[in-house]
Amino acid sequence: MKPTIHVVAGIIWQDGRYLAVERPEGFPMAGWWEFPGGKIELGESQEDALVRELREELDITATELSFWRELEHEYDRYFVRLYFFHVTGFDGELKCLENQRMEWVDPGEPPVLEFLPADVAVVEALHS
User: Fold this and answer.
1) Mean pLDDT score, 38-47
2) CATH class of 4-126
């Protein structure tokens, strides 16, 4: 039986656009785009995990976040259950602490970045 990994992801909004980050070299699935976030640690709430992950990845503190949707995706060796949050407020200045590239994406335009397969349905929903 494949394990399930529980992951939070933040759809960070600014000026009507959302933030996409590219998985850096040395990370699994490097070169694919995703929403910032990461694994939920044992005993951690989804919200706490997202706040921690955004601090670790981007040096910001989410101050306004709301749960949007949950989905599950099957990869070859595991399932990933993703919990997506809209992040509409944060403190701090965005910095790429893991050497990842960032892009602000206009949901009014067709998507052009290659998102992780687990994120494609969310990207499509944001652009519909």
Assistant:
1) 97
2) alpha beta
Could you give the angle at the alpha carbon of 25 between the alpha carbons of 62 and 78, nearest 5°? 75
Of 46, 23, 48, nearest to 33 (Cα)? 23
Percent of the residues in the chain that have a pLDDT greater than 70, as a whole number: 100
Q: Domain extents for the chain?
A: 4-126
Q: Which residues have CB under 8 Å from 28's CB, separation 6+? A: none
* Integer Cα distance of 79 and 86 in angstroms: 23
Q: Give the pLDDT mean for 53-60.
A: 97
* Residues recorded for the chain: 128
Smallest CA-to-CA distance from 13 within 83, 81, 62, 82 is with 62
* pTM for the predicted model, two decimal places: 0.94
How far apart, in whole angstroms, are the C-alpha atoms of residue 72 and residue 39? 14
Query: Residue 98 has what pLDDT?
Result: 87
